[in-house]
Amino acid sequence: MNESFMYTPWSLINEIIGGSDRFERMFRDIARVVDGKYPPANVYSSDKEIVLDIEMPGVDKKDVSIDLEERSITIGFPSGNAGNSGSRKFDLPFDVDKSKVTAVFKNGVLRISLPKAEAVGAKRIEISD
Q1: Alpha-carbon gap, residue 95 to 70, rounded angstroms
Q2: Lower Cβ count inside 10 Å, N or C end of the chain?
Q3: CA-CA-CA-CA torsion sign (31, 34, 38, 44)
Q4: Is residue 126 part of a domain?
Q5: Containing domain of residue 12, as a range?
Q6: pTM of this structure
């Protein structure tokens, strides 16, 4: 399991008090959702996948971009009336099987399913003469 998602009560308190960048980003992101700068998102997680439901009423799907990196996904979207654009990045707790990722935009909600990649087993390397 990814260490960034494993907490004990004391480590969580230490990160908050110590000014962890992760918590600063989290609270900044919450403020941007409240201010309307970020579209609201629901994140559902299981041991097999993560599903993101991002509310984007009035947005055309051609104006939305999705960029998947190693352990993060960035959603680009129009922001405001002046033709501005914004983006929202989500860190992922596991590697994603990129060949099975799906995205559906329906009734103003973008749903992205990110299946967990199969673990790559250990491989023994033979030493040649």
Answers
A1: 7
A2: C
A3: positive
A4: no
A5: 1-37
A6: 0.66
